[in-house]
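Supplementary Data S3. Sequence and structure tokens for construct A.
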Amino acid sequence: MTDKKEYCPTMDELIKHVDAHAIEHYPDGWDEWIECLDYSEKVKILEGCIAYKEARLEAAKVVKEQLKYAAIRAENCGLWDTGEDSKTEFYNQIQVNAEKSVQQLAKKGNTNDTIN
């Protein structure tokens, strides 16, 4: 029996580790982690994590949700780009509908599966 304590990385180390993973997987949707979150937001997401794998999994949950929201917005914005109507009311309604869709997804909270 040994008295060795398992090493627990600091928050800075966890964030650097996840950032490196995000850069490696940037084209797979991890650009959201790099481009959209600041340090304090990353700290909140990784709060309570004590291992690198755990931090990657927590970050993956957030990235996955961001990808869902981005897809909804892209689809709804694509509807506007038809050239059929130059009025902004239609575009504004699409944005309202997209936000409602995002809120519904957030209520479901199904983030158990992970991405790369």
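Construct B, processed identically:
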Amino acid sequence: MAQIREDAFAEFFHAGGIRNVVLVIEQGRARIAFSTAEGPRTGVIVTKRGEVKSYRVETALAFLRRLGLAQVLIDMQHWELRQQQLEV
């Protein structure tokens, strides 16, 4: 799985290297996963320390929108109703 920082993701996206983006929601937080245009290889955005970056849902959506992304898939498989709410 590819692990890249936000700045590299933005460059890769603008160069046409991203096929689709999935916002994965788990325990009220979100992470950004993606597939490349070269094939089914997927990756995630990470912090400077190399840890998977955890976002507030609204922050992740704002970041993707600023890049010009109009559509994103949302994976709520690990979010449960008993969590009451998403942190926005």
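The two ends are 27 Å apart (CA to CA). The longest helix spans residues 57-66.
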